[in-house]
Amino acid sequence: MPNNQQLFANPDMIRALAQQIRTLSGQIKQNINDVALKIKSTESIYVANSATEMRDKFEALKPELEKYEAYLLKVANYLEQNIADPLEIVERVASQNVASIQKPQ
After folding, report:
1. Distance from the Cα of residue 41 to its chain's centroid
2. Taking the chain, what is the end-to-end CA distance rounded to the nearest angstrom?
3. Per residue in 41-88, pLDDT tens?
4. Cβ proximity of 12 and 85 under 8 Å
């Protein structure tokens, strides 16, 4: 049985979603920086092997967190460049074509 469902997309809504994803990426970046600062401040107050170990483990994890942040930016860019922008062009061309059709007399 064919799937006759239709998908309605709005370029502005897609751009808004892309912006939300960018905001999330920025929040992740800020959280990474905040944790790094807290670890650094803890290390300056509490000099022990556990503090160094905590820093080392975070530094090992940090590149993976940064990859996720970068991935979110790629998703946001993809949404805009490959979905919202082409969709807007298709909508504009379709509107122009509809406007150019004249009713028969």
Report:
1. 30
2. 41
3. 887 777 777 778 888 999 999 999 999 999 999 999 999 999 999 989
4. no
Query: How much of the chain is helix, strand and coil, in % rounded to 5?
Result: 85, 0, 15
Dig out the tokens for 28 from the structure.
């992740």
**The token pair that represents 26 in the structure block:** 């920025």
| DSSP summary character for residue 80 | I
Length of the chain: 105
Q: How many other C-beta atoms lie within 10 A of the C-beta of residue 99?
A: 8
Please give the model's pTM, rounded to 2 decimal places.
Answer: 0.76
Helix (H) / strand (E) element for 103: namely none
Looking at residue 62, its amino acid is K
Both tokens assigned to 10: 């709005």
Residue 40 contacts by C-beta under 8 Å, 6 or more apart in sequence?
55
